[in-house]
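Hi team,

As requested, here is the filled-out complex form for the iron/sulfur cluster run. I kept the field names the same as last time so the parser does not choke. Let me know if anything looks off before we queue the next batch.

— J.
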Amino acid sequence: MEFIKKIDGDSLLLTSNNDKLKILDFLSKEALFLKLNFFNPEQSFNKFDKTYAFFLKSHFRIEPNLSDRFKKYFDYIDINKIYDNQKIEYLKTIKKALLENEILSDNNQKYSMIYQVNETYVPSYFTGKIEKIYLNEATLEPCHISVCKDQKSQVFYVFEKVIEFLEMGVPINSINILNSSEEDDLQLTKLFKDARIPYNLMKRNGLYEYANVIELERILLSQGFDQAQAYLENLTDDEIKRNLIKVFNTFSSNLIKENPEVFIHEIKKLRMGNRRSKEALTISAFDDFIYREHEFYLLMNYYEDSFPRIHLDNDYLSDSEVQLIDYPTSTMYNNMLRNKISCKLNQIINLYISYPKEIIEATLPSRITLNRPVIKSEYNYVIKDRTYLKDMAFLDYAKKRHDYLNFNLHAQDLKVLHNTFHQHYQQYIPYFSGIDKSDLECLIKQNNTLSAYKMETYNLCPFRYYLTYLLKFDSFKGNVFTYIGNVIHKMIEEKTKFGNYDLEKIMMEFSFPEEEIYKFPVFREIMTENIRIIEDVITDFENTTAFKKALVEEKINLPIDDNFKLTGRIDKVLIDEVYNYFLIIDYKYGDENYNPSDSDKDYDLQLPLYLMAFNKQNRNLKPAGMLYQKTSLAKEVRGTEASYKMKGVVIDLLSVIERIDPTMEKIVGMKLNKDGSLPKNSRSFVSIEKMNDILRETENRMKTVAKNIGLGDFTIKPILYDIDQQTKESVSCKYCNYFSICYSKNKILGGE
Ligand code: SF4
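And here is what came back:
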């Protein structure tokens, strides 16, 4: 590091954030006050004003997800150049507007010298002399690579290695575990806790992973800025609150009020670090560690696709397009990333690498070049005859106590064990026994909306509703299908509202699940084809129906009782303005149907609830029907329009049916008798009386759910009248995550 002292003050150092910290640490230890310029090339060189995302939303109608993806290109775009590419020209227009409005400021500084620290990537806009420097020498010490049987075995390898280091006398705060997955962390921390080994889990959590923040979002979007601010003020004074206040203070209240979604997006980007306690080993992400020569490093999951995470050619600009602005292609980027990591790994003296041989499929070791001796071995976990778990004796007591109480088997040491442990022994009682009144009131106050989905969940199993929506045990994480659903819904919304849409832009607006990003190219192809077909189907129906007025994403906000209101959004409402009828359409990726007999089911409420709510909010209109439109591509029947027919029910008035679908081809079951009359037993038609019954029953159901929640009825009660054919369990439990704590449920279903 001595060479740092010789660096001229006007120089620029291209470094990662951690190398920058390391250099600053060195300077402060040496009491040197050099004024060095640092730049992390993974960020933008030109400076963006904090209101950037708000500006793009208000001036260009660009959603914040997409505006984030645009940022990296602006450094490379020359506003005086004409590009033979529409997307780049579009980015150029945005850049000009950003500069004119001082949202982006050109960083024109000149540097006497540029230093590339530890193989950091050098952006093409830096020209002139660039010198490479390394913070540490590459080592010739061998590194150890252990190939483990599977993920679990890798966790045991790391745990045992930690024990070995400790037994060798390595200070605990010199042990670092890098690149563990979330699942590894769960298992590792359990092992460390049981063995009383202190650890610092230094992974940064998104602020959005905290229930208070999710609640704040809900209040901001549903009740407005003032309510959200009041909620924030009442939160307990902790780090989450401090972070939220900071982000609230970053933007003016007008900006937040005008674009609450952009503000939420800014919150979602915030991460909170964990504090390091003194004497403990550290578990951190690979990008977050600062190398110290005498410490020990256990690098996990060293296999292709995971380490490093590969960049794919699936961003806003494709690889062939980025070349027009000298931005690195994904191949170049991946190579630079590997070089950077290789440089870092070659410097670590005490390096222990591991990877599982198999994760669903066989893995391949990472393609990082290691220019140092490598000792490779296989690791298989073998159960040991010693334990680091202090709790084993406690477990022994629990078992012997059970044997004694149930089978009258009296172990010799039961008395001693009892004297030692009985005070700490608590029995697990696996059923819901009630909730304190004031706790319930407080939970309801914080969760006072009911959607169709929430009501269906309550009716499927009250306990499941309680854990999910009141205690918020299971925060929903998006997946590939929610991504596709979002894209298709947005496409249909824009198509109906504006007559056209930009599919590329919409696809970038939503986040494809990070861990499955390698599947994106395949899904992009499927979706593009899917959307083309569904667009034709929808346009065709809209052109032929006499229900000409369309409302999309129609908001529902209907008071139910003193505690709750019904909220939601209807995908589409079509209105016949001549005869004052309306029709509800819901887009579903799967193959949904609604039959009149479904009105007896408690868990098929969405369409009738929407119909009832819209009817209540629009008394001048009469309900004509409720339909599901399938939006997924059914490959085997592609091109045969029948598979895209809508499913559901409409009222049995021929005059209305002919206005809904004059072709009689777009809805399943739309067939007339030879004499032109309506068939008597069709499941697609309901009488006006039956439709009114459905509306009345739905309203009663809604009120009953609200009432029962208000009374605190959260018994474990899966429905027993419908059994899932695949799992042979109640349909309530099919996708429920709480099965492991549902002892009573098993009893209800006749199990243990
Ligand atoms: S597993 Fe079944 S019984 Fe248990 S909470 Fe879930 S839905 Fe209810």
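Two things worth flagging: Residues 636-642 have pLDDT under 50 and may be disordered. The first strand starts at residue 12 and ends at 14.

Thanks,
J.
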